[in-house]
């Protein structure tokens, strides 16, 4: 089924503490962000609401180092908790306030990943990539090519996150507790094999989670990253959407959100087999955001937490 809506990193050094230690350190900050949050500024267009990384394997990042957000820039409550409290869905930056934006791209790698990396390098913009990990498995036709692209994403210093293995969704009659767990851990193993880091950031396919999947994600130490700056590029910039195809509308979507709300934002576009036109719009998206005073930050800075751990 084609998604009708959907579909975003900088890691605070975790090696000194280990993931659990780092998690504990930021618990206070995070717990504050989780309670009493304002939800659903996310998908202003009525869509289903649905981290950049200092990779140990990739060497020093070219992007701005993660730093504690100045107190005056501290974000208000930004993540939403399910009533059960089993997990959190992060739609904006818990650790930053003000005019900042995290760029993020789903469904990669793709034939356009290298073009996207070149654009991000040219614009000196960090981004988070949420990878469809089945493309990295040995039975995928472009296995070697796609793995090499993921390596280049990590080496460029961008956040490498999970978008699950199958992309069939973590919610619905087709899944069981075991299959949800497998969909997450298989993706983690494949990504860790390439980057040497286990991603602990994930965007659920179609943005969909339920109590069970959030509980599993929590057990597996995953931060569930959604978005609040929708571009609808799956509609306006996808080669398989002939009827709606109109890439400049991606910019209209961004303008519409900027006109009615302020950051921090987590943006979403795609890096899929159908995303050539969308990727070509990325320089204009970045220019538009910057012309409105926004700074592109890493997912780690947005979260104020690590996004991955060593593979070990
Ligand atoms: Zn997706």
From TrEMBL:
SUPFAM superfamilies with a match to the protein in the record: Glycoside hydrolase/deacetylase
The name this protein goes by in its record: NodB homology domain-containing protein
GO biological process per UniProt: carbohydrate metabolic process
Keyword Metal-binding carried by entry: yes
Domain NodB homology: 99-297
The organism of origin for this protein: Chondromyces crocatus
CC annotations in GO: membrane
UniProt-annotated stretches for the region Disordered: 48-85
MF annotations from Gene Ontology: hydrolase activity, acting on carbon-nitrogen (but not peptide) bonds; metal ion binding
Keywords associated with the record: Hydrolase, Metal-binding
